[in-house]
Design brief:
By secondary structure, the protein is α/β, with parallel strands linked by helices. 34% of the residues lie in helices and 16% in strands. The chain has one domain: Rossmann fold, CATH 3.40.50. The chain is globular.
Length: 133
């Protein structure tokens, strides 16, 4: 499993913007540092005519950014976590919200099902939301 699909990346940007507009801090987990950099570039462009303040986790002055992007090992405290990687978020109960974007490809959907079961086995009650394009 590699990079997030373009649709998933744009949805992550949209969700991060919505959280930021509600004064919530956000951490977006990507599969790799290059993926984090690509998502950061996308946040400069999307959504159009909007600015989403963000930084790469670990970058200079990243502690001031309301939206951080990084790999799972870089995970920092945040109100909202948007997970674009195939592994479940460790200790999800420490965050107000954990958002998982379920891809269309069947192989990747299986990873999402596994994460759903992991969260449920930890005593959480995951909710699903259908997002129309």
């Amino acid at each position: 499993m590699g990079e997030a699909a373009p649709g998933a990346s744009k949805l992550a940007c949209r969700l991060a913007l919505m959280a930021w507009e509600r004064s919530q801090s956000v951490f977006v987990i990507t599969t790799s540092n290059p993926s984090a950099e690509q998502l950061g570039e996308l946040m400069w462009q999307y959504p159009e005519e909007r600015f989403l303040p963000h930084a790469q986790a670990g970058a200079q002055d990243s502690g001031k950014a309301p939206v951080l992007i990084g790999v799972l090992a870089d995970l920092k405290p945040a109100d909202v976590v948007i997970n674009l990687c195939p592994e479940a978020v460790p200790q999800p109960e420490e965050f107000k919200r954990v958002l998982e974007i379920v891809p269309c490809a069947e192989e990747e959907r299986q990873a999402s099902r596994t994460k759903y079961k992991t969260y449920r086995n930890q005593g959480l009650k995951p909710r699903t939301h259908e997002i129309n394009k």
